[in-house]
Design a protein that fits this description.
Elements: E1 4-6, E2 16-19, H1 22-30, E3 39-44, E4 49-57, E5 62-71, E6 79-84, H2 88-101, E7 105-109, H3 126-140, E8 147-151, H4 154-165, E9 170-174, E10 180-181, E11 190-194, H5 202-210, E12 214-217, H6 225-236
Parallel strand pairs: 1-3, 6-7, 6-11, 7-8, 9-11, 9-12, 10-12
Antiparallel strand pairs: 2-5, 3-4, 4-5
The structure holds S-adenosyl-L-homocysteine.
S-adenosyl-L-homocysteine binds near residues 174, 200, 218 and 222.
Enzyme class: transferase
EC number: 2.1.1.193
Function: Specifically methylates the N3 position of the uracil ring of uridine 1498 (m3U1498) in 16S rRNA. Acts on the fully assembled 30S ribosomal subunit.
């Protein structure tokens, strides 16, 4: 937690911010080893970044004087990530990593090799998804929450959503064995599609290419979803 991310409701009219939830308090005690008088980086959810001075810290409350919250958060990546729904633990880690890297639009997609049971996972509950996004924001000192959409059926996604998502965006389909190496250092708005642990099936690859996506590869090593996404984002932007 390189940033104490505040809900606008945490800040009182007197300019004092109070943190009461056990996770942030534990972190302040155990990782920051914070003490009254310390200056820490604060941010407001979907707002600015700044500094705050810790007034007091107890087992049930931390109180800060907010000094200023007028710095903009880091620039987002110009990408909409379409991720075939990974297994719950991988989903949690991947959401955290991609949020820390600056992704602001995520669609979780059903494909043939996504296990149907993953859609029933408690990790997909909005408050659990939000927890992972917040961890990513706190890690990267960002304040803007990504927006996560669920696309639980492939065909409707392909026919109804994809054409709009591809308007003004370069579609990039990450799939081992494609002809083109993943481009480097682009700044074009993009739509990046990453498959499930078993990969996209040939039918899906054909449809996505037909819809206007470019197939790209990262070399002959087949990477786990969370590694592939990180490598792709790092190399693309
Ligand atoms: N067994 C699958 C690979 C699944 S890896 C297969 O052989 O197709 C999970 C996802 O990570 C893939 O669908 C792809 O989107 C991405 N990925 C992993 N390694 C990659 C590579 N070397 N090139 C491009 N994409 C890769």
């Amino acid at each position: 937690m390189n940033l104490i991310l505040l809900d606008p409701d945490d800040i009182a009219a007197d300019g004092h911010a109070r943190v009461r939830d056990p996770r942030r308090l534990r972190h302040l005690h155990e990782v920051h080893r914070a003490a009254p008088g310390d200056e820490l980086t604060l941010g407001v959810e979907n707002g600015g970044l700044g500094r705050g001075r810790l007034l007091h810290l107890s087992s049930d409350e931390a109180c800060f004087v907010v000094e200023q919250l007028d710095q903009p958060p880091p620039a987002p990546l110009p990408v909409h990530l379409v991720l075939a729904l990974p297994r719950p633990r991988m989903l949690a880690r991947t959401l955290e990593h991609v949020t820390a890297l600056g992704v602001k639009h995520i669609t979780l997609l059903h494909t043939r090799r996504v296990e149907k049971s993953y859609w029933q996972s408690p990790e997909l509950a909005p408050e659990r998804v939000r927890e992972h996004l917040i961890l990513g924001l706190e890690q990267a000192r960002d304040t803007r929450l990504p927006e996560v959409t669920l696309a639980t059926r492939f065909r409707p996604f392909l026919e109804d959503s994809l054409p709009d998502l591809l308007k003004g965006r370069r579609g990039l389909l990450a799939h081992p064995g494609m002809a083109t190496p993943c481009p480097r250092g682009i700044d074009t708005p993009s739509l990046l599609l990453v498959g499930p642990e078993g990969g996209f099936i040939p039918y899906e690859v054909e449809r996505l290419l037909e819809a206007g996506c470019e197939g790209i590869h990262l070399g002959e090593r087949i990477l786990r979803v969370e590694t592939a996404v990180t490598a792709l984002l790092a190399r693309l932007f």
